[in-house]
Design a protein that fits this description.
alpha/beta, FAD/NAD(P)-binding domain, protoporphyrinogen ix oxidase, domain 3, seven-stranded mixed beta sheet, 22 strands, 32% helix
Length: 442
């Protein structure tokens, strides 16, 4: 049994580290417990010798304006680079430059049908209805592909209200995208550097198995380096991913709460966890830059609708022989059951489809993949709202008994769920809730 702390933070991802830093600044003593042997959660950067671009096994992009992320980059002496560039789609066997916004047509159909004023339905139900059938088939296909690939969502389950909110004018479709120069590990460096080590203990390889709690008291049961381990505190901030919270007791990575989280069950039922697979393919040379007479030298994204790995992207503006192959949604959920070798081969097949005439396997130097669905401490990618979810994120984020506080991207209520920005904001919000409750009780 360790010394009693003011707060125990479960999880050393972006949300947990942000919460721990804010709590330590307020003078609280904090223990951060992390099951893995590293910090970062679903941020995981690999730096490969001789490769100018980082290999991001998890989070990679900064979506829109994120002052929190940009400030952390500034603190670490880093910066962000704009990833805007050309998009090319494989149409009738040939890469063609994308000019017309098919998603813009779908957004227009949402607005014309005033979907936000009507009861919530799934995206697929809308597309199958009168307003959806009026759209060109290619626009409907693009809508399904976008929510699957970008939101990691199942079109048959995702809330139409959430999609329409995300796509409305000035929203996600119109946002810029960037990535941390040199990799997201720069953000982790800043988060770790913000911890007051006189007040914060970080314990890695500590797998929490049970949390017993009552008003003003938390008892943690865990396994640390293969041995039973316990800790206690006045309160706890829970930052584990949504799918881990939903995991049945006894499953690898699951946490048993006593008392249970019955009041959270409506939120846990309506916030869904998507699946994604990203395979990072390092080649001997960036052969795509010279393909078809060099027409694609400034390409950022390649799309092959209908294929398993329907999206590829380059590390532009960094020029490096690296391609990211991406699949999300139901197709990713099915493929997650395959072996890593089968997944990597499917990604290579996707590259070969876009660039016929190249022996992509001969060009390949290495392939990198982390199957987050099989990771017991993630159990999937990021969250999305199911039909009728309403204020489920607010319910999931609400503290219990002034003792358990909740953070993580799935609990973000600022409009940035499923992102690193949302995770950072949720951690800061949970820390402030702890501080306010503690001050009010003293």
């Amino acid at each position: 049994m360790t010394d009693r702390q003011d707060v125990i933070v479960i999880g050393a991802g972006a949300a947990g580290l942000a919460a721990a830093a804010a709590l330590s600044r307020s003078g609280r003593s904090v223990q951060v417990l992390e099951a893995r042997d590293r910090i970062g959660g679903r941020i995981w950067t690999r730096l490969e010798p001789g490769l100018a671009a980082p290999v991001e096994l998890g989070a990679e992009f900064i979506h829109g304006d994120s002052p929190e992320t940009y400030e952390l980059l500034r603190q670490a002496g880093g910066s962000a680079v704009d990833t805007s560039g050309e998009h090319w789609s494989l149409i009738d066997g040939r890469l063609q430059r994308r000019t017309e916004s098919l998603l813009g047509q779908v957004r227009g159909a949402f607005e014309a049908a005033e979907v936000l004023r009507k009861p919530d339905i799934s995206l697929e139900t809308f597309l199958a209805g009168e307003a959806g059938r009026a759209l060109p088939e290619e626009a409907r296909a693009m809508a399904r592909a976008f929510v699957s690939g970008f939101d990691a969502a199942d079109p048959r389950l995702v809330s139409l209200h959430s999609v329409a909110e995300e796509w409305r004018s000035g929203g996600m479709l119109d946002s810029s995208q960037s990535r941390p120069s040199g990799g997201y590990h720069t953000v982790l460096q800043a988060l770790a550097g913000a911890l007051d080590r006189a007040r914060v203990q970080v314990r890695l390889q500590t797998v929490v198995t049970a949390i017993d709690w009552s008003s003003g008291s938390v008892e943690i049961q865990a396994e640390r380096l293969g041995r039973p381990w316990r800790a206690s505190a006045r309160s706890a901030v829970i930052t584990v991913p949504l799918a881990v919270l939903r995991a049945a007791g006894g499953a690898p990575g699951a946490i048993r709460f006593r008392p249970g989280l019955e009041s959270k069950q409506p939120a846990l039922d309506r916030i869904l966890c998507g699946a994604v697979l990203k395979v990072m393919l390092r080649f001997r040379r960036a052969f795509w830059a010279g393909h078809d007479g060099g027409r694609h030298a400034d390409a950022s994204f390649f799309h092959s609708p209908g294929k398993v790995f329907a999206t590829l992207w380059t590390p532009l503006p960094v020029r490096a022989p690296l391609l990211s192959a991406w699949v999300g949604g139901p197709a990713a959920a099915r493929l997650c059951e395959s072996s890593d070798e089968e997944i990597m081969r499917a990604a290579l097949d996707g590259v070969g489809t876009v660039f016929p005439g190249y022996d992509v396997e001969a060009e390949l130097e290495s392939a990198h993949l982390h199957n987050w669905a099989r990771d017991p401490f993630a159990r999937g990618a990021y969250s999305y709202l199911g039909v009728g979810a309403g204020h489920a994120r607010e319910l999931l984020a609400a503290p219990l008994g002034g003792t358990l506080f909740f953070a993580g991207e799935a609990t973000d209520t600022t409009g940035e769920p499923a992102t690193v920005t949302g995770a950072l904001r949720s951690g800061a919000r949970a820390a402030m809730e702890v501080i306010r409750h503690s001050d009010a009780s003293s």
